[in-house]
Design brief:
Blueprint: H1 3-16, E1 18-23, H2 28-43, E2 47-52, H3 90-104, H4 110-119, E3 123-127, H5 128-134, E4 147-149, H6 151-158, E5 162-165
Parallel strand pairs: 1-2, 1-5, 2-3, 3-4
């Protein structure tokens, strides 16, 4: 193997050890996969960062982290016609059904997933612009959040690594 090939291999190994997950959605069916990927990546030794923006901020907000819902309207994955999602109470019903499946599978709650991610070394970053737009303060965030950063910092964190947008 030439030096050039060895350098490329080393660079690929270093690059693949970085993971940035951008979470812009705040529903159970979007937040769980983000934290499952983050905790799995951290367990595998990856340098994992999560950037929370727009509705993804719900998963790191003290007020909403424990009460995320499943959207019943516009969710084509639900096993029912979309129009039924507009019936009053359907969001509560679909959320209850999903939480029941989560408990049956013995999966941790979202607040527990946040703690688990932090304990595994995942870095949690809140979006400064979203906080300004939505009137969110640092005190509104769960204590596991590492910092508040903008898009430029987020892009630097992901540079050369894998970036997943949810």
């Amino acid at each position: 193997m030439t030096v050039t090939q060895a350098e490329k291999t080393e660079e690929r190994i270093q690059t693949s050890s970085k993971l940035l997950i951008i979470l812009s959605k705040g529903t159970l069916d979007m937040v769980y996969p983000a934290f499952m990927i983050a905790t799995t990546g951290a367990t595998m030794g990856k340098d994992v960062h999560m950037f929370f923006t727009f509705w993804g901020m719900n998963s790191i907000s003290r007020k909403t982290v424990g009460s995320l819902k499943v959207a019943s309207v516009g969710n084509p994955g639900l096993p029912m016609p979309n129009i039924l999602g507009m019936i009053p109470g359907m969001t509560a019903l679909t959320t209850s059904m999903m939480k029941g499946k989560i408990e049956k599978a013995k999966m941790p709650s979202i607040p527990d997933m946040v703690k688990m991610a932090k304990d595994l070394g995942v870095k949690l970053h809140a979006c400064s612009t979203t906080m300004d737009v939505m009137g969110v303060s640092k005190d509104d965030l769960v204590p596991e959040v590492d910092d508040i950063v903008g898009a430029a910092t987020m892009l630097e964190l992901g540079e050369g690594g894998q970036i997943i947008f949810i």
